[in-house]
Amino acid sequence: DRSIGLHSLHKRTFASKLRRHSSLAQALRKQAPIDIHPEVEDALGRNIPVVALESTIISHGMPYPTSLETAQSLESIVRSTGSVPATIALIGGRIKIGLQPLELEYIADTTANPNITKLSRRDIAPAISMKRDGATTCSATLIFAALAGIKVFATGGLGGVHRGGERTMDVSADLQELTRCPVGLVSAGVKSILDIGRTLEYLASQLNHVQRGVDLSTNTIGNSWSFYTARSGFKTPWRVNDAGTAATVLHTQWKLGMTNGVLFAAPIPEEYEAAGLAIQQAVERAISEAEDNGIHKSGKEVTPWLLKRVGEITGGKSLASNVALVRNTALIGGQIAVEYAKLER
Ligand code: PSU
Ligand code: MN
What we know:
alpha/beta, binds pseudouridine-5'-monophosphate, 15 helices
């Protein structure tokens, strides 16, 4: 049948055009320093679901060797859902979309490798130009995931407005990046070291294109914005209960040409909630110590310092919670990516 033949020919031409004009194809043509892990490349080319994972959480957010073990377990959790993990980092000035085992080990140990820089948007071009090594925050990971055409990204805590941010203007680049990158970001919420209320205000006003929270939990009451507890008192405007609906939200949004990201809040698993109050108290103490020591003035050092201090005060409890919640987001991210790939078929 001639019309069917024409139709599929048209589709093929269209698809190849899209591929040629994808941001990744363009960047590669301009010889951008990007290395895509063969497994990730294969997956991207065949519509096999891929989940991006950030590297700052392991380099600057957790102590070694928990960092490495966590990074490895996140990759296997993503695999268990049928998705391919792509941990993103910068090594020798090259953007790595998916890391080899030794590269993952390297990034996870900042004590042995103190030259690994924490990278946000502002740091990317200088770090590449000077051939540096760096771990990507949510903001930088969003940029590279979008560039590679990866639709889903799983992380622990999203950056946001710091306490006192109305004076210090310390607002994470993560928020702004979500408005630019067509990626579904699965996170346990904004860290409780932050000003959750102001972060949500920022999302609502500055980032009015961001769909700011689709609660994937089946077991909470929709209060999922805090980090160590699912009961922060702040509610998400929308709630979905399964990965299929979450994927449909992404698909619908991008089909309509709204090229911003979507933030999915996946609350910490219930069994880790008990520790939430003690951790929150440690957070309050760490924040006032940071102010006494002038740490709050030092920009990108603030988050790693607070996370480390809260870990010390709680005797490792916050670390265990942190690991548990990011494992949970990796699982949910993998499931959403699988459902999304079905919609693109
Ligand atoms: N949450 C954690 N550990 C981390 C981070 C978040 O539990 O290390 C990192 C993420 O990479 C996030 C970044 O993007 O902190 C935000 O840092 P800042 O506040 O400097 O923008
Ligand atoms: Mn900050």
